[in-house]
Structure formats: structure tokens, C-alpha cells
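dumping the sequnces here before i forget
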Amino acid sequence: MNLSHSLEALLYFKGEPITIAELSKILKCSENEIRLGAEELSETLSSRGIRLVRNEDEISLATAPEVSSIIESLEKEEREKDLGRAGLETLAIVAYLGPLSKSEIEYTRGVNSSFILRHLLLRGLISRKENPNDKRGYLYATTIELLSHLGISSLLELPELQEIKKEFQEKYSKAKAKEQKEKESEEESS
Amino acid sequence: MNLSHSLEALLYFKGEPITIAELSKILKCSENEIRLGAEELSETLSSRGIRLVRNEDEISLATAPEVSSIIESLEKEEREKDLGRAGLETLAIVAYLGPLSKSEIEYTRGVNSSFILRHLLLRGLISRKENPNDKRGYLYATTIELLSHLGISSLLELPELQEIKKEFQEKYSKAKAKEQKEKESEEESS
Amino acid sequence: MNEHQGLNFKSGEFEGPLDLLLDLIERRKLHINDVSLASITEEYIERVSARKELPTGEVAHFVLIASTLLLIKSKSLLPHLSLTTEEESDVKNLEERLKFLEKIRSLSPHLKERLFVTPMYLGGLKRSSRIVFSPSGDLSLSSLSVAIRSAIQSLPLVEKLPKAIVEKIISLEEMMENLAKRIEKSFSMSFKEFSKAHANEKKSVIVGFLALLELVKQGVLSVAQKEHFDDIHIQKDSVGIPEYN
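..and the predicted 3d for all of it:
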């Protein structure tokens, strides 16, 4: 694999500027080689939708200036579109049962929720903070802006909050117990 | 600005899969034009550090499989790798025959697959969406993440994909329909 | 001692009835057809009987497949036995399902070889744009309350016994009775052809029925003992476990 390709992949994955020094360390080659690779990548990208942006000691990918209006319409579209069933469900789980970790949310929904959580974060409907019980994970909770948009001053004012919390707890523990059983019988056989 | 460049920029900016439907709305052109643009972008990227990954309704950029070892060293999260025989078998069924319903999966495997499907959903390897023919049920399909984990840009890279899909539909549909009817009457009563 | 125990088949190595059948067929390096299915019928029933703690719903699936196997077996021993159209299509379906699952199985290793080996990273999660509070038109207290209700609804349910499976098991008992009568009839019709050399095989059919009945009993319902089977029970001790190669 040629160096400019590796650079492109790294910069894409990181999605933020990386210093020449760091790149030379990751790719195990000299800073000069990195600069040459960056030169080559820059030429390849010169007429594409993404470009290479360079300054003295760091480089980064960025969208081409010609597409800035399209990017704006993407942002606008993303901010205005309906939350939909998946979005509302995730938000409701965070509001009624939060603060919750990602894996608790996913367990309750039964599907991977990485993208939908990110979307709710970007729309300022939920926020996350470090989980005191798990340094690498986060706890998700609703934002104050969401409450005021809903016209309530506290989550306690959510309709039927107590009943729903209680009902959830009961079903959740039964479901967990059952899943454990199923897991055992299905795993036994795999 | 050509369409494939706009797609590249949008996908780079979003950094996660975007549906064909959403792209068609943002770029104000038909879904078919989006698919053609994606085709062109896919070819342009075929020998680069980033690639286009496609499934039926979504596309995304991803780093090339050839640089996976470099990117892996940057990834902080440890990925759970083991799937087990039942998991792989179920995944193969969804990849080759999907989108399909739970009862079709269970008919093929001959065994209850609730837990294993849930597990695959939670890991983001498969997705579910409402079944247009059965409001109470879901259709299961592969995700862009699954393709990216496999290091392939499209399901078409799987061996024998077309033949097996065809065989399933032709030879199997009669038996399936019969069994499904029985299955449904079971589900109704449970 | 019967040879199957020598296979050292660990319980739990199979998943469902189709997997078990495929395993048995593959171990003997057979092709999937009525002959191979007939030859593994007893072993299948034995394996299932030996599996003590099958989940309730699963027993029925195993038993239903067992009944089709028994049809195949009976037909292979008694060519005069005529199967109904539905029975014939059951047999054909079973073969087709097995062949298809075998094919799917042969594809899984390919996925296994590729999965997580040289992944493509979607990345981009850090490419965060600004957080701007942007509620949507479909967001309200009532839509949230509807959403949480449906989320709770869709939590995995506490196990309930599927009624249709129970019904199938009941009709299975009738099916066995019926089949037993037809076998007897078929025996008398073909008595001359069916020489003494085959006597042992006749017994194996009966043992198959007994084992199947045992399964039904273990299963969802405690099936009331019917006179017809009492007769067969009496012979049980003298029959023993059949040898099958």
C-alpha cells in the first residue's frame, strides 16, 4: 500500500488534523517521507469532493470549498428532520429511565444505537457525561433545553413517570432472567 | 460540481452511513441518479485509501481493508470478535437471503433464533426495519457495519450470492409460505 | 452396545433438529435423501430423548421432525405403505430444508474467514459538527409517552406456551395412531414378501414409535395413553435397541 493511501485512510478515520510528527510515528517513516506523501495525496485530491489542508506541522482532510452549500443543506436537513420512531424511542428511554449507559439503552431497545445517540447529541436533545462506574463509558441524560421545549421544568412532570418506571423495572428484570436462560440454551448449542 | 464529488464530500462530512433517500433529498436528484453517482465514486475510490461501502439503501465511506492494521492500532475500543457457530450461520442467512423475516430465518435454521438475532442487532451486524407486508413484524438485513467488518464494499463480493438468493426464492418459497402460515398462527396465539 | 454411542456425540453440539440431522448425516458421509434419513431415524430419536433439558417450545420442533423421519423410515421398510400427498410433501420439504441449510453452513466459514480480519473503518465519529439545539416537529410529551410505552411493550416477553405447537403435538399423537394402523395393514398385505429376515426391522419401527411417544410425553402435554400403544408397550422388553448401519 502506498504512503499517500495510508495517509488518506488515517486522516479520514481521525477526522481532525494530525501532526506530521505523529503521522511519522504511526506510519514508521521519516517526516520528510510524510511530507512527500502528503504532496502526492494533495495532488490526487485536487479535483475531488474532499481536499487536503496543510499548514506548517499538521495536515487534515476537509470538504472542498465548492460543496459548502451542500454541506449546509445536509446540516439543515439533519436538524430539521423528524426524529422518527427510532429517535423518539431512544429519547423517551433516556428521558424516562435515564441517566443510562449506551449498553443499557441498547439492551432496552434491542438494537445497536451508536448512530441514533450521536444524532440526538448533535441536536442538543441529550448530553453525555463520564460514567462514574465505568471510566471508558458515558451516561446519557436529557438536556435542559429539551425540558423547556417540552414545557416542563423537571423530568418528574413527564406523564405517568412513576408508573412507567415501575412497569419497566418489572419487565426488565423478567426479560433479563429469561434472556439469560435463552442465552444459556442457545450458547450451549453453539 | 459533479455528483460523485458532492457525494464524497457529504459522506466525508457525515462520517457515517447516509441513506440513498436522504441523499436524494439533499442533492435534489432522483435515487437512481444517486446510485449512479455512487457507482462512479466507488470506481474512483477503488484503488485509494478510502472506499465506498454500499448496501441496498445506504452508502458510507470507510478506510480501505489494506490499511486495517494501521487503523486498528489507533482504535481504543476493543472489539468483541467471537460470534460462535449459531451466530455465523444466522449471519450467513441474513447476508445471503435478506431482507427476510424472523419466521423465514427460523424456518431455514429450524430453531428459535430470538436470542441470536438480538445479539446480532445489538452488535450492529444486522438491522431490522418494519415489514411492509406485516406491521407487527420486522425484516432483517445486513448493515454497512457488517460489510465494513468483512472488509467488502458490497454484498455482491460474497461468493455465489446471486445463485443462492435465486435458489432460495424459487425452490424454497412454496415450502416457506406453508410453514410461515403455520408459524403466524402460532405467533398470533402466543 | 450400539454403535452410535461410539460417536461420542456431546450434547449441546447441535442446535435445532435440522442441525442435529445434518450432523448425523455428515458424520456418516451420506448424501441427503430418503435412504440416509431412514438410516438415521433411530439415532435421531435417541439423541433427542437423551437431551434432558430442551426448552419447552423446542421439544415440539424436534418431535415434528421426528414424525416425518418416522414416515420416511416406515416407507423405506414397507414399500406398500402409501403416503398421503401432504405426507409426501412433508418428506420432500424436510429434504429440501436440509439441503439448503447444508449450503448455508458451507458458506459460514467464508464469513468467518473474513469477519473482523481486515475491517474497513467507518470512522468519522469525531468529526463532530456544532451542537445546535434543534427539536423536531414530531417531538412532544405525548409522542415521548407513546414511544416509551411501545419500548416497554417490545422488551423480550416472558415465555408463553405457543398454542399452535400444543395443537400440533396433539395431532401428532393421532398421526402416530393412524400410521400404526396403516403399517399393520401394510404388513398383512405384504406378508409373504416380508420374510423373517426383516423381522428385526419391523421391531425397529415399533421402537421408533415408542421413542417418539416418549418424546411427546416429555414435551408440552402429558399425552393420555391410548390402548393402541399399550399393545406395543408389552413388546418393549423383548425388542431392545435396534442395530442400524
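The two ends of chain C are 13 Å apart (CA to CA).
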